[in-house]
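hey can u check if this looks right to u? its 204 residues, i copy pasted from the old doc so theres a chance i mangled smth
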Amino acid sequence: MHIRLFAFLLISAIISTNGNQTREVEKKNPLLWIIIRQLDRIETRFDTRKVEFDKKIENLQKEIQKKQGEQSTQQTPVALTSCGHHSHVTVNNDGIIRFPRKIISVGVKHVSSYLSSGKFICEQAGLYHVSVTIMTPNSHTNYELKKNQVQIVAGYIPDHSKRFSSGTINTAVDLNVNDQIAVYRGGVNKYYGYYSCFTIVKVN
């Protein structure tokens, strides 16, 4: 815009106050009009490149905001501990051992879904530590921690003559978004809810 204004001011300086005919000026000053056209082309190219540059800056800003959002998500802590109630619990037909009494929950959006279903659905990808303790009257048996219905590790309840005994699992597991973690009965038919607990913590 400044280039074009300069060109028209230049024309005005050359054109006399009594003669303001464009064609006459063009005939008398052909070189000037060539310069004006060249300046106009330069301005057009400049405007086009400016638009392209502004678009690149906009895309770069969006990419930076996206990266900042991802970093913020990665830094958000995730932790959940839940246990059962003061009762003897018979495992449901789906084989999932549930822990419906929330002790603590940080950074988990769908807590109520987990408490009712027993399925922890990963919302933030990363490395997690999982701990499971089951107190049961069953003896010499096992239970399983599964990721997407595939066993990660098994817990064991040793032989015992007591009313109850317990076994504990501690493991690390790498989770992606929407991966599912659940505890399955194995050979456990009943368990005492209050002393049976599930904990998962995002460590990285």
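The chain has a mean pLDDT of 86.
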